[in-house]
TrEMBL record:
<keyword id="KW-0812">Transmembrane</keyword>
<feature type="transmembrane region" description="Helical">
    <location>
        <begin position="20"/>
        <end position="38"/>
    </location>
</feature>
<feature type="domain" description="Metallo-beta-lactamase">
    <location>
        <begin position="93"/>
        <end position="295"/>
    </location>
</feature>
<keyword id="KW-1133">Transmembrane helix</keyword>
<dbReference type="GO" id="GO:0016787">
    <property type="term" value="F:hydrolase activity"/>
</dbReference>
<dbReference type="InterPro" id="IPR051013">
    <property type="entry name" value="MBL_superfamily_lactonases"/>
</dbReference>
<dbReference type="InterPro" id="IPR001279">
    <property type="entry name" value="Metallo-B-lactamas"/>
</dbReference>
<keyword id="KW-0479">Metal-binding</keyword>
<comment type="similarity">
    <text>Belongs to the metallo-beta-lactamase superfamily.</text>
</comment>
<dbReference type="GO" id="GO:0046872">
    <property type="term" value="F:metal ion binding"/>
</dbReference>
<dbReference type="InterPro" id="IPR036866">
    <property type="entry name" value="RibonucZ/Hydroxyglut_hydro"/>
</dbReference>
<protein>
    <submittedName>
        <fullName>MBL fold metallo-hydrolase</fullName>
    </submittedName>
</protein>
<keyword id="KW-0472">Membrane</keyword>
<dbReference type="InterPro" id="IPR006311">
    <property type="entry name" value="TAT_signal"/>
</dbReference>
<keyword id="KW-0378">Hydrolase</keyword>
<dbReference type="Pfam" id="PF00753">
    <property type="entry name" value="Lactamase_B"/>
</dbReference>
<keyword id="KW-0862">Zinc</keyword>
Amino acid sequence: MLEAEMSNPTYPRHRTRRGVLTGSAAALGVAALPAWTLPRSHGGLEVLALLDAAGPFPWKSAAAFPDATTDDWARAKRLDPAAFGPDDGWNLVFRCFAVRRPGGRVTLVDTGVGPEGSPASSWAPVPGRLPDALSEVGIAVSDVERVVLTHLHEDHYGWAVLPDGTPMFPDARYVVQHAEVASLDAGSSSISYVVDPLRRAGQLHEVQGRVRVPAAGGSLTLLPTPGHTVGHQSVLVEGGRRRILITGDVLVHAVQLAAPEVSYALEADPATARRSRLALLELARERRALLATAHLNHPFIEPR
Ligand SMILES: [Zn+2]
């Protein structure tokens, strides 16, 4: 557990800093940096954590995780102290990941809360800054060949399209589980804001189940992890210095890492979500993969 790395969390929203995640990273005392790079081994894949937004969630912690015990909260606080705001507040970040292969082409996993006017902007703490975060690490929108959406919640598809319906990444195939799209209500903002525009542009690519995507230097494997939503998926990245498991919202708070059986109040199917969480953590331990999380205050974290 890289607890020391999370001991001095800050939210430098306009600062660019890239780091190397090694054993000595703990000494840096840095946490929610806008961009945090896990560098590739020679010729392999590079995984970059990109901060879109940070701030308090509208729900109090106890309301969001009603099953958590005092002991669960104490362990969670040791894992992610920055998540604990005053008056039982929950401070979280909204993070995306870029997987860059040799030559510079990129798979982006999730797209944050989006700009002013996106569906999430009615409740997100601040508008997103993903375009700045991408340019700070030298990624142009045209470099993105694939966008994997772990699920179709507002804080994960925010920059997939612009508010006028134009896909943000003109050359990308947007990959989502068919079960996720099929589960949406016809009148939902997920359909009108992101699914319909991507479909009209011919850029929506629905997949079913586990899918391995070979890439020069390694591979990405899409893993169905249902429960948070019906068609939620996570992404295993192989071919870098360490295997990386991009969790999506299988766990949204350190309390679900400290106590994986603890449900989040907004999970579509808590029992299924719990099974997915336990299975994903087991996979991460087996494969010695680092977890890459969307909402914890440190982007990369050892499974427990
Ligand atoms: Zn989320």
